[in-house]
Amino acid sequence: MDIFLFAIFLAACVGAGATGAVFPPGEWYKTLNKPSWTPPDWVFPVTWTTIYLLISFAGARVGGLEGSAYALAFWAMQGAFATLWSPVFFGLRRLKGALLIMVPLWISVFGATVCMFQLDFWAGLAFVPYLTWITVAAALNASVARLNPNVVPVDLSKV
Amino acid sequence: MDIFLFAIFLAACVGAGATGAVFPPGEWYKTLNKPSWTPPDWVFPVTWTTIYLLISFAGARVGGLEGSAYALAFWAMQGAFATLWSPVFFGLRRLKGALLIMVPLWISVFGATVCMFQLDFWAGLAFVPYLTWITVAAALNASVARLNPNVVPVDLSKV
Question: Between chains, do B22 and A97 touch, taking CB under 8 Å as contact?
Answer without folding.
Answer: yes
